[in-house]
Design brief:
Layout lengths: L8 E4 L5 H12 L3 E6 L2 H14 L4 E6 L5 H10 L5 E4 L14 H29 L2 E8 L10 H20 L5 E8 L5 H11 L5 H12 L11 H11 L11 E4 L10
Parallel strand pairs: 1-2, 1-4, 2-3, 4-5, 5-6, 6-7
Length: 264
């Protein structure tokens, strides 16, 4: 498949590390002009430099802004009034007993995992619809369908993300703009390494810790290993392209077979 995103501008929120960084790198490899986003100027600059080293011909910009904050999002939108591809990747997760999660923590998870994407989609979708092309992608999770007992608050926000995606896709019906969620399965990132250590102990070699985590906490996975970020990024690049023009309003799985369903 020849995917060429030349002439497209893509914004990837939370792209200084992990899945977001892999997505930004793959979009740059496909020819898109990529806007890297994070809260810290130093981290954004470092991520831009790392992508440029991996993709010397990359066209890159960096914008430091906290898009989970009204003012931060407004500043980013002012600096970047228009995009062709919006990847709502920013997200937080962590283990907590559900009976101990207070209102403030519930609100924090909603603000970061749900409202940040709503805010940016609301800002950029009208322009996409007017131009007759656009891609809005929200990086969701298997936890949107299989609520994890150790992080119910995270699962709830990811479920909400699917409903938001479907609603915006309906608003963009017939315009040439597609809106989708990507259901990422358990993925190998630095944050997940810390999460695995929290659940199975930090005194094990990584290969053994990963094996125990998958066996004890994610036994439904058919892949039986953590997914690599680039495997998520490959799906995002496809969905960002003209080739995916008939896929919209969907929850597209890159979950390693984790969700026990015969439906997407």
């Amino acid at each position: 498949m020849d995917i060429d995103l030349s002439g497209r501008t893509a914004l990837v929120t939370g792209s200084t590390q992990g899945i977001g960084h892999a997505i930004a790198t793959r979009l740059a490899q496909a020819g898109a002009e990529v806007v890297v986003n994070g809260r810290s100027t130093e981290r954004v600059d470092a991520a831009v430099a790392a992508i440029r080293e991996a993709v010397p011909e990359a066209r890159l910009r960096g914008i430091a802004a906290d898009v989970a904050d009204d003012g931060g999002a407004a500043g980013l939108i002012a600096a970047l009034p228009s995009v062709d591809v919006l990847v709502n990747n920013l997200g937080i997760f962590g283990a907590a007993p559900v009976l101990e999660i207070d209102d403030a923590e519930w609100r924090r998870y909603f603000d970061v995992n749900v409202l940040a994407g709503i805010r940016l989609t609301r800002a950029y979708l009208p322009g996409m619809m007017e131009r007759g092309f656009g891609r809005v992608l929200s990086i969701s999770s298997d936890s949107s369908v299989v609520t994890p007992v150790e992080m119910v608050h995270y699962g709830v926000t990811k479920t909400a993300q699917l409903a938001v995606t479907r609603g915006f896709a309906k608003a963009a019906a017939g315009t040439g703009v597609t809106v989708n969620s990507v259901l990422a399965g358990p993925t190998h990132t630095g944050g997940v390494e810390d999460f695995v250590a929290e659940l199975v102990g930090d005194d094990l070699p990584w290969d053994e810790a990963q094996r125990r985590f998958m066996l004890e906490h994610r036994p439904q996975s058919l892949l039986q290993r953590l997914i690599e970020p680039v495997e998520i990024a490959n799906m995002v690049v496809y969905l960002s392209s003209d080739l995916a023009s008939a896929t919209t309003g969907g929850a597209v799985r890159v979950d390693g077979g984790y969700v026990d369903s015969i439906l997407p």
